[in-house]
Amino acid sequence: MGNFVGKNASVDRTSKIGNEATIYGPTRIGANTFIDDKVVVGYPSKRKIIEMMEKHMGKEINHVFDELSEGSIIGNHCIVRRGTIIYERVVIDDNCETGHYVLLREDTRIGKRCKIGSYTIIDGFVTIGDDTVIQSNVYIPPKVTIGSHVFIAPRVVFTNDRYPPSNRLIETVIEDDVVIGANSTIVAGIRIGKGAVIAAGSIVTRSIEPYTVVAGAPAKPIMKRDEYDTKKKDYENALNRFPWR
What we know:
The structure is a single chain. The protein is α/β, with parallel strands linked by helices. It has two domains: 1-125, UDP N-Acetylglucosamine Acyltransferase, domain 1, CATH 2.160.10; 148-245, Hexapeptide repeat proteins (UDP N-Acetylglucosamine Acyltransferase, domain 1, 3 Solenoid), CATH 2.160.10.10. The chain has helices at residues 46-55, 61-68, 225-241; strands at 4-5, 10-11, 16-17, 22-23, 28-29, 34-35, 40-43, 73-74, 79-80, 85-87, 91-92, 97-98, 103-104, 109-110, 115-116, 121-122, 127-128, 133-134, 139-140, 144-146, 151-152, 157-158, 172-174, 179-180, 185-186, 191-192, 197-198, 203-204, 212-216, 219-224. A hairpin with a 2-residue loop joins β29 (212-216) and β30 (219-224).
């Protein structure tokens, strides 16, 4: 099966584009990057879709989308796996990878060496720092800022509205070196300080001080990060002492 690469797109000759991949607008793809089968890059935003329906009826959709899209940027040595959809005005820096069927909405910025797990949705207007790992089935809405060296476990949900559905969305900030355990919920408008740890299943309703470990619903402090790191090291060392476990 073939693919569609727009007339203004730029794909480095060392990169590989899979079958049925679609690249719209002035998208730029760097060197040694792999775009898997059935990936879409540069998908137009909602406003552009409405414009298409009003003004471009009857035209072939790929060519219309190619004209409407502002394109995206994907850096060098990236892997974008099958089924991922990347909207226009997304910037992905070097050495990043996605799992399967990831959705990245418009105006998302992803730093170097990040990993985005399968079925994760980043719903646009989100900024992510370098070396951050976001595992599978995470939901991140607009107005969330995530720092560098952050680890987000599966099925974490961020929010951006204190009284949904309202017409006021507020920013949530996750600082560098934060760990967020699986199935946690991060309520809108808070700041999680540098080096904090959120235990699995927590509901975080208030801002968290740096290097604090919290757990529960609502989440409350249970220890400091240095104690957590000591417990983690002991846990890892136990495997070396008792390899049959």
